[in-house]
């Protein structure tokens, strides 16, 4: 993923004509890494500033969307003036991009002529190859688009080539406009990033053709592919190349991009391919916004000690969360005290898988929200909210992240306990709950004189037990939906086999 653009915003700031105010304003801008440029104003501009004011030309750098960047820079200046009690105002602001004034450039290569000392007269295929890879006399020059090769040669002959102490001789060197060097490719990268829709359209078309799998779709797909190849070839072929070069390279690039989606779609169902493509696209956008939210943030500056600190924190908190889930499952679901069942420590970690996923999802959602707000300059940053609002927002996020695994863990344990009760009612052994395995048993009396909690014990039907820990065994009656406790040495438990009409049969 590419990083968001950095926008240069130039702001004309009027400051009260006081050396202390001017120094304070410059200090505020330098704290934000904003440059204060040298500005020489005419008499008319000085008069427009007003009496008792001086002008500062400030260059702000903002990362994010171009929409709203200028407005955000002006708001930052106004916010600084209010917070620091500085007498300054933002009079004018505009987005500064010097590359727009230069216009497009054409890239030329300057190489030695074949037959010179640097390039020996090899046979044609080898001469062509050596002419491409031979570094002797190889130069790359950029010239304004629309200039001819003769103009470039004339300028190099007049002394432009001496800028790098490399003389230019028309008889020895040859100027060619080519797209084989890396310079045109690098210059085309911004256009590729800006025009990403032909890439997605090509991959989607290939996946659709593969999902349909009918011969009748090929003519329409071929015509559409040629149109998309024309746009794809525009970004990788320099200006001035013949049109068939642009179309040929576009077709090659379209085939490379569409091969994998076509193969995947031809072997699977259409909806699955479309869903997978949307999932990949959404995942890429989410990761991009998350990276933008964490970059140059408080977390990125303190990650070196925050991430190691999470290891002991999770090692202590996860067993507690697992114990809470087991308690909910046993106590709320079956009325059995959780301390009467032995649970291994690895199982307490394993049971927290879904709550950890919920906590991670909450972190992803909030990070994505912060990234979107930073990208579109939505007022959640330090420039628009007060310190108390920031603390409230931070505390709310922390509570949400901590509460999400607890709520999800309790609700999941309660739902699975309800499903286990339904299975036991139907006479089937319920599914295990992360190592906690229930069994349907028939109870036989060994000693007629023993105390029973919540008795009497129904001996004619199966009961559910999760084992015993200590001197007591806890049983759950699917009919009465109540827990029964009896001494472990007073009863014998026999495994109930599904299909028996009742115990003792």
Short description:
The protein is of the alpha+beta class and 505 residues long. The protein has helices spanning 19-31, 43-49, 69-84, 98-102, 124-133, 149-158, 182-194, 197-212, 217-234, 243-266, 270-294, 298-334, 345-350, 353-375, 387-425, and strands at residues 6-16, 35-37, 53-63, 88-95, 105-112, 139-144, 173-177, 439-445, 463-468, 472-477, 482-487, 491-495.
Describe the structure.
The protein is α+β, with helices and mostly antiparallel strands. The chain contains 15 helices and twelve strands. It has helices at 19-31, 43-49, 69-84, 98-102, 124-133, 149-158, 182-194, 197-212, 217-234, 243-266, 270-294, 298-334, 345-350, 353-375, 387-425; strands at 6-16, 35-37, 53-63, 88-95, 105-112, 139-144, 173-177, 439-445, 463-468, 472-477, 482-487, 491-495. It has a five-stranded antiparallel sheet, with no helix packed on it. A four-stranded antiparallel sheet has the order 2-3-1-4, with helices on one face. The chain has a three-stranded antiparallel sheet with strand order 6-5-7, with helices on one face. The longest helix is centred in the C-terminal third of the chain and has 39 residues, at 387-425. It is elongated and about 115 Å long. The relative contact order is 0.07. The model is unreliable at 118-122, 179-194, 236-240 and 380-386 (pLDDT under 50).
């Amino acid at each position: 993923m590419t990083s968001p653009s950095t926008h240069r915003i130039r702001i004309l700031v009027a400051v009260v004509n006081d050396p202390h105010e001017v120094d304070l304003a410059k200090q505020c801008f330098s704290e934000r890494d904003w440059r204060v440029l040298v500005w020489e104003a005419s008499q008319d501009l000085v008069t427009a500033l007003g009496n008792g004011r001086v002008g500062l030309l400030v260059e702000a750098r903002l990362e994010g969307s171009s929409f709203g960047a200028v407005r955000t820079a002006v708001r930052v200046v106004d916010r600084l003036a209010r917070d620091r009690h500085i007498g300054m105002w933002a009079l004018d602001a505009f987005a500064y991009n010097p590359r727009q004034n230069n216009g497009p450039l054409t890239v030329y290569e300057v190489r030695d002529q074949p037959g010179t000392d640097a390039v020996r007269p090899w046979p044609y295929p080898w001469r062509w190859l050596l002419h491409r890879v031979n570094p002797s006399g190889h130069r790359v020059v950029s010239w304004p688009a629309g200039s001819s090769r003769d103009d470039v040669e004339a300028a190099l002959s007049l002394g432009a080539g001496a800028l790098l102490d490399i003389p230019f001789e028309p008889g020895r060197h040859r100027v060619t406009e080519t797209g084989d060097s890396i310079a045109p490719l690098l210059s085309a990268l911004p256009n590729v990033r800006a025009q990403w829709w032909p890439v997605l359209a090509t991959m989607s078309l290939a996946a659709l053709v593969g999902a349909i799998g009918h011969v009748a779709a090929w003519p329409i797909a071929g015509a559409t592919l040629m149109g998309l190849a024309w746009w794809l070839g525009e970004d990788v072929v320099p200006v001035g190349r013949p049109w068939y070069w642009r179309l040929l390279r576009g077709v090659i690039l379209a085939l490379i991009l569409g091969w994998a989606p076509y193969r995947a779609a031809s072997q699977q169902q259409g909806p699955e391919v479309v869903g997978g493509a949307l999932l990949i696209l959404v995942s890429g956008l989410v990761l991009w916004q998350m990276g933008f939210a964490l970059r140059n943030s408080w977390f990125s500056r303190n990650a070196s000690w925050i991430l190691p600190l999470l290891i002991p924190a999770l090692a202590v908190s996860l067993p507690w969360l697992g114990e809470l889930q087991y308690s909910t499952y046993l106590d709320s679901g079956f009325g059995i005290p959780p301390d009467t069942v032995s649970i291994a420590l690895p199982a307490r970690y394993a049971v927290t898988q879904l709550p950890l996923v919920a906590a991670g999802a909450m972190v992803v959602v909030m990070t994505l929200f912060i990234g979107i707000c930073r990208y579109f300059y939505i007022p959640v940053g330090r420039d628009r909210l007060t310190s108390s609002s920031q603390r409230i927002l931070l505390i709310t996020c922390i509570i949400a992240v901590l509460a999400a695994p607890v709520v999800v863990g309790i609700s999941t344990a309660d739902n699975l306990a309800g499903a286990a009760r339904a299975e036991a009612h139907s006479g089937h052994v319920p599914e295990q709950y992360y190592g906690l395995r229930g069994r349907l048993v028939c109870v036989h009396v060994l000693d007629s004189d023993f105390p029973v909690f919540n008795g009497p014990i129904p001996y004619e039907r199966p009961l559910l037990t999760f084992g015993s820990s200590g001197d007591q065994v806890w049983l759950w009656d699917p009919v009465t939906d109540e827990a029964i406790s009896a001494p472990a040495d007073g009863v014998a438990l026999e495994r109930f086999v599904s299909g028996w009409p009742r115990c003792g049969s």
